Automatic annotation (TrEMBL):
Signal peptide start-end: 1-22
Subcellular localization, as worded in the UniProt entry: Periplasm
Name recorded for this polypeptide: Cytochrome c3 family protein
Keywords: Electron transport, Heme, Iron, Metal-binding, Periplasm, Signal, Transport
Coiled coil spans: none
Transmembrane segment boundaries: none
SUPFAM superfamilies according to UniProt: Multiheme cytochromes
Cofactor (UniProt): heme c
Primary localization: periplasm
Domain (Tetrahaem cytochrome) ranges: 28-103
Length: 109
């Protein structure tokens, strides 16, 4: 890593920590004893790919009762290939990605 890259990374981490984002973790992951490097397997830490999520989590089974919405994990637009991170965020509030275009009333953990 070059000196400039290292300095920029350091500044980015300070800013993230100042915003509280770098130190946040979902309570169920904390309770399971996970640490940052449990999911972030690269140095410096990089985006976590969906395959990493699937080392602990299983792909959800097909469900039909989503308050009138189609199966959230088998989208009519993307099939089952939509990245988990589109809805499930570790370091910020999760979101209902479908509601970017639709209006479905369900909460995302």
């Amino acid at each position: 890593m070059t000196k400039l890259t290292s300095s920029l990374f350091g500044v980015a981490m300070v800013l993230l920590c100042a915003n509280g984002m770098a130190n946040t973790m979902k309570p169920h992951h904390k309770e399971a004893g996970l640490k940052c490097d449990s999911c972030h397997t690269t140095k410096p830490f990089d985006y976590v790919e969906m395959d990493q999520c699937l080392t602990c989590h299983q792909t959800p089974e097909k469900k039909t009762d989503y308050h009138g919405a189609p199966d959230k994990h088998d989208s009519p637009h993307y099939g089952p290939q939509l990245e988990c991170e589109n809805c499930h965020h570790e370091h910020e509030q999760s979101e209902n990605y479908c509601n970017n275009c639709h209006e479905f009333d369900f909460k995302v953990p």
